[in-house]
Design brief:
alpha+beta, Alpha-Beta Plaits, 2 domains, five-stranded antiparallel sheet, 4 helices
Length: 179
């Protein structure tokens, strides 16, 4: 066959340049929260000062409910829950502590929400903080995370350090670090 020995040349292969990036998220380890709630409810059930108060600590889909017969026992049960969360290394910022409400029968209840993910306002605040830092990085909001990308790895590490010094209302984690 004539021309069978010819090979096509398409020129140099264009390499895709991938900029280093990482994601800023706010996640709660639900298993650790479950363990802390179990430990707290077990302690409340065995402590003498909670005897005959019918104090309960329960974990819902996205909240932790504390219920008791008196207001001061409810506050004490919430302190026990806080101790157990800290011991399990769950940030107290990840819980939106609810107000005490009086429910029927002279009982008190507090519904404490779990902060999962970044809401739109928080993502905008973090993105604005990154832009104002003056580093050569880009921050883009993707649902409940903020993706930060830049040409230099050092700039990304400076952004992480800047966000760590920022005492933000939610616990922030830095995941998917890619080079």
């Amino acid at each position: 066959m004539p021309g069978a020995d010819r090979t096509r040349s398409f020129g140099p292969v264009a390499e895709e340049t991938v900029m280093p990036s990482f994601d800023v998220v706010s996640q709660v380890d639900v298993q650790e929260v479950r363990n802390a709630v179990d430990q707290a409810s077990r302690e409340v059930g065995t402590r003498y000062d909670f005897k005959d108060t019918d104090t309960k600590i329960t974990l819902g889909a996205s909240d932790v409910t504390v219920e008791s017969s008196t207001e001061d026992r409810l506050k004490a049960a919430q302190e026990v829950l806080k101790e157990k969360l800290v011991r399990r290394k769950v940030s107290l910022k990840s819980v939106a502590w609810g107000n005490l409400q009086q429910v029927g029968g002279g009982r008190y209840r507090a519904v404490n929400g779990l902060n999962q993910g970044l809401d739109a306002e928080s993502a905008r605040e973090i993105s604005k903080h990154i832009r104002e830092s003056g580093l050569k990085v880009q921050a883009s909001i993707n649902g409940d995370l903020v993706r930060v990308s830049g040409k230099k790895r050092d700039d990304l590490q400076d952004v992480i350090e800047s966000l760590r010094t920022l005492d933000y209302k939610l616990p922030l984690q830095y995941i998917n670090y890619r080079e």
